[in-house]
Design a protein that fits this description.
Elements lengths: L2 H19 L2 H24 L3 H21 L2 H28 L2 H19 L13
Length: about 140
């Protein structure tokens, strides 16, 4: 087995193990981190003119953001959850535009938005980490 395949398997097992033991709060953090990772990878592939890989990573980021969006409980979260729902939709739209137009600035815009949401999420006190999520 070559080192690259071994590393991929290690990363996959490491992530899987982290998911199985993570709190709902940590799972949302992991999704946000994953979206950021995919956006940064897409930006690198765009710069390297690897269009197919850029598109794959942007699609993956959109799927992750859609997962965050689907976790929202609009009944419990009220206006806050509705605003996040709309923001996630905006991020998905901007990523699609970034993909179609090969625009790294749009990738940066979405990354910054995710970082802002993540900063708020990271600031939630530990005693609320296992509460029902409204993302």
């Amino acid at each position: 087995m070559n080192a690259s395949i071994a590393m991929q398997e290690y990363r996959q097992n490491h992530v899987q193990g982290g998911i199985e033991t993570a709190s709902p709060h940590r799972l949302v953090q992991m999704l946000m981190e994953g979206a950021l990772e995919k956006i940064m990878a897409a930006k690198g592939f765009l710069a390297a003119d690897e269009v197919a890989k850029k598109g794959e990573h942007i699609s993956w980021a959109i799927s992750i953001i859609d997962s965050l969006r689907s976790c929202l409980n609009l009944e419990v979260g009220g206006e806050f959850a509705e605003n996040l729902f709309d923001l996630y939709g905006y991020m998905e739209k901007r990523l699609l535009e970034a993909n179609l137009n090969n625009d790294p600035a749009l990738l940066d815009e979405v990354a910054q938005l995710i970082l802002q949401v993540k900063a708020g999420w990271d600031a939630i006190p530990a005693e609320y980490h296992n509460a029902t999520s409204t993302t």
